[in-house]
Amino acid sequence: MDTTEPTGRPEPTASQRAASLKERVYISFTSLAVVLALRSHADETTPAAAAATLTIVVVGSLLGIFVADLLSHLTVHAQLPSGPEMQHMVAVCTGSLTVLVTPLLLLTAAGLGLWSTAVALQWAIVVLVVTLFVIGYLAIRRLELPFHHKAVIVCAEVVLSLLVIGLELLAHNL
């Protein structure tokens, strides 16, 4: 008889880690699009309104992702997710909320009069871009590739991220 007891939660599978990473990237880009739009109207909005807008969009996006995950699971497996599968879906969605922490802290500081809404939103843009870079780095750090291949991957991610930002700005300015 095996007396080994499982300790804590099981380690996520590769596909679960990929789903979590994908959602973090998606929510980071969604947040960035909202912050870029808010930044272009910073003189017309309050820190509280900007924080509420960002929070509503991110929570709404995460609920949409959750529904999409649930429906795709039903389509593929013809049954509801198991307890652990549902826990993972919820954990991924709630974990992606961490993208909001720094932008909301910056907007709170603006609300307290430490700086303007425009400054808070500008710093939020910087933080979200750095977040995307860090997510990309974390995704490739364990790959068994030469350093220069990893550098090319990170550079490609940065270029594609800048392209997404450029398209978001273009769409907002049309």
Helices and strands, in order, run as HHHHHH
Nearest-angstrom radius of gyration?
19 Å
| Percentage of residues assigned to helices | over 70%
So what's the overall shape?
A: globular
What are the low-pLDDT stretches, counting only 5+ consecutive residues below 50? none
Query: How many helices in DSSP terms?
Result: 6
Count the strands? 0
Please give the alpha-carbon distance between the first and last residues: 68 Å
- Main sheet makeup: none
What is the average of the pLDDT values?
Answer: 88
Which structural category do the helix and sheet elements fall into? mainly alpha
Report the sheet-strand fraction: under 5%
Q: Which SSEs are present, and which pair or pack?
A:
Elements: H1 14-39, H2 47-77, H3 83-96, H4 101-111, H5 117-140, H6 147-173
Helix pairs in contact: 1-2, 1-3, 1-5, 1-6, 2-3, 2-4, 4-5, 5-6
In short:
This protein is 76% helix and 0% strand. The chain has helices at 14-39, 47-77, 83-96, 101-111, 117-140, 147-173. The mean pLDDT is 88.
Could you characterize what this model shows?
The protein has about 170 residues and is mainly alpha-helical. About 75% of the residues lie in helices and about 0% in strands. It has 6 helices and no strands. The protein has helices spanning about 15-40, 45-75, 85-95, 100-110, 115-140, 145-174. α1 (about 15-40) runs antiparallel to α2 (about 45-75), α1 runs parallel beside α3 (about 85-95) and α2 (about 45-75) runs antiparallel to α3 (about 85-95). It is globular, with a radius of gyration of 19 Å. The chain starts with 13 loop residues before the first helix and ends with a helix. The mean pLDDT is about 90.
